[in-house]
Request: fold
Amino acid sequence: MSGPMFTGSMTALITPFANGSVDADAFQGFVQWQIDQGSDALVPCGTTGESPTLSHDEHMRVTELCIEVAKGKVPVIAGAGSNSTDEAIRLTRHAKRAGADAVLVVTPYYNKPTQEGLFQHYKEIHDAVDIPIVIYNIPGRSVIDMTVATMARLAEMPNIVGVKDATADLVRPAKTRAAIGPGFAQLSGEDSTVVPFLAQGGHGCISVTANVAPRQCAALHQAWRRGDLATVSEINDRLMPLHDALFAEASPGPVKFAASVLGLCENRVRLPLVSVRPETEAKVRDAMGHAGLIN
Reply:
């Protein structure tokens, strides 16, 4: 296997809403801003994009809106996961038709499949659609945890190209690298652990924080690649309170608020999520100030 397909700072995009619907204009403006700020790739329709409360039509339209702006400028890794294998295949087929560069497929939630069930789920998607697939392993939301052994079996398939690892297990990337090799893209799903994740063999981060600090997140990865550890440390210290604040309540509530402070979208989430409390707003504002995003 050659080098990893994806590296650097990738934004797990929020989905702006207005009047109960997806705000297409705000979303496409936000995508262009992300590109202008230096994000290395964009990930629509993930957890941060509130995919559980998007209708199928909305989900597919958000993917299309992102690709319309980003295609040819930065890669789009479209969220296409489901706890129904057939539904995941339908979303993956749509992402390919729409022009996505890859798909992000979350481990099936609620069903609690065995490791063999996980293997067969991803194999079925892989065999049905010819598009690069990034596994999304997030046991905190999906309950089940894909083992390194299962991931190594899947990585033998040509289109299983990487993982978004949201386990916060900092031994995992080294074990995965040893089992699969350095060409399998290892992307952190935990902003606060990105530096040790990179040190253990990771290649990038699919980031919540990059929604509001894309230039700083991209700069951290650029500094890492050129071996400038002083700059990595300085940016990491500046962003760490923001990483923490953006998970003070259920995500993406805090980052939606932060984006609204920057005038990027309205502060609206869909039930069962609700807007964050005043004390969380204050914590987010303080962290944004510490990061140099606001005065």
